[in-house]
Design goal:
Jelly Rolls, four-stranded antiparallel sheet, binds 2-oxoglutaric acid, binds fe (ii) ion, metal-binding, anthocyanidin synthase, EC 1.14.20.4, leucocyanidin oxygenase activity, Iron_ascorbate_oxido_reductase
Length: 390
């Protein structure tokens, strides 16, 4: 039998070829296309509600317990709680990460993606062989599946001892130092935000509950995984998506970007395009936190649009519990006779497998309308896990 070994086509190569019509596998189904468009056009809708901006500076730098207690009544707890409940997403200001470190991170990722494609292929991943880390493009998961208009780089960022620095780009020279330092700082911000969101659920004095639950009382560390999404210019943005609608499986996801619009979040029955709020970091509530909060915090449904004019790059840090050691379940204090547990206990890995299984089952069935799928995802926390199925 003849075997055809093909390198996966990179979306960047397609975009650079100057084609005027995108290949059919990138064209989304008609009902999903109804509200797609050029991200720059959609970002001009100034009637859209604004994703909340929350200043978390009262919680940083992380202080000893006593100081933390005094600060815990801060109004930032209520602002973060409301944003996590109503939106499942917020822009955080006052995170304490220096602007020049964020610029270094962006410059390093941009310099990697500025390499010619053949140079980036040295870092190619191979999901079929179980090698998820590296440079990749998402392949259709079934014969009728659509592809997404993006390439990416994915690797574990923290804890440092688990990170395989040999897989991190050697070019530009600052990539490893800048990315590692950013990971260290995001780890601190994750603790602060978990403390704030814990207090928002359980009241002052209970700021440690979420992180304890996610790390087996500190025996394991949280994991941070970095995915740099590279969305090339697209000649027909009204037909394609960069990342299809999904919720993240993480506890929290942190997003930086290069200022080009594209992220949309589902809020009150409509898609809202995230605005550029300079200096802030976007934070998503993911499935793991929705489960621990027994549904009080919302794992936000979101997607990435593309545009004709400018390459969009985003840096997403998924903050996750260890895959097997922690049982994700609603915090016992949040389960009452009035409010029974809405989620069955599961490890992070089991959650991931279940979500993938559901997605594959959906793909085997004749497709329901995409709107129905989204509604279903809204309520059951289903959707797509991005960074490990690629
Ligand atoms: O590019 C973005 O802003 C979001 C990407 C995303 O949702 C993901 O990688 O999970
Ligand atoms: Fe996502």
């Amino acid at each position: 039998m003849e075997s055809t070994l093909q390198l996966p086509a990179r979306v960047e190569a397609l975009s650079l070829s100057g084609l005027s019509a995108i290949p059919p596998e990138y064209v989304r189904p008609a009902d999903e296309r109804a509200d797609l468009g050029d991200a720059f056009d959609l970002a001009r809708d100034h009637t859209a509600p604004r994703i909340p901006v929350v200043d978390i500076s009262p919680f940083l730098p992380l202080a000893d317990d006593d100081k933390q207690q005094q600060r815990i009544n801060s109004e930032c707890v209520e602002a973060a709680r409301a944003a996590a409940a109503d939106w499942g997403v917020m822009h955080i200001a006052g995170h304490g990460i220096p602007a020049d470190l964020m610029d270094r991170l962006r410059a390093a990722g941009a310099a990697f993606f500025a390499l010619p494609i053949h140079a980036k292929e040295a870092y190619a991943n191979d999901p079929a062989a179980g090698r998820l880390q590296g440079y990749g493009s998402r392949l259709a998961t079934n014969a009728s599946g659509q592809r997404e208009w993006e390439d990416y780089l994915f690797h574990l960022l923290h804890p440092d001892a688990l990170a395989d620095h040999a897989l991190w780009p050697a070019h530009p020279p600052d990539y490893v130092a800048a990315t590692r330092e950013f990971g260290r700082r995001i780890r601190e911000v994750a603790s602060a935000l978990l403390a704030i969101l814990s207090a928002g659920l359980l009241g002052p004095g209970r700021g440690d509950a979420l992180e304890k639950e996610l790390t087996r009382a500190g025996d394991d560390d949280l994991r941070l995984q970095l995915k740099i999404n590279y969305y090339p210019r697209c000649p027909q943005p009204e037909l394609a998506v960069g990342v299809e609608a999904h919720t993240d499986v993480s506890a929290l996801s942190f997003i930086l970007h290069n200022g080009v619009p594209g992220l949309q979040v589902r809020h009150a029955g409509r898609w809202v395009t995230a605005r550029d709020e300079p200096g802030t970091i976007i934070v998503h509530v993911g499935d793991a936190l929705e489960i621990l909060s027994n549904g009080r915090y919302t794992s936000v449904l979101h997607r990435g649009l593309v545009n004709r004019e400018a390459v969009r790059v985003s840096w997403v840090v998924f903050c996750e519990p260890p895959p097997d050691a922690v049982l994700l379940r609603p915090l016992p204090d949040l389960v009452t006779t009035d409010q029974p547990a809405r989620f069955t206990p599961r490890t992070f890995k089991q959650h991931l497998d279940r979500k993938l299984f559901k997605k594959h089952q959906r793909q085997l069935l004749p497709p329901p309308s995409h709107n129905e799928q989204h509604q279903q995802e809204d309520t059951d926390g289903g959707g797509h896990h991005r960074h490990q199925i690629n």
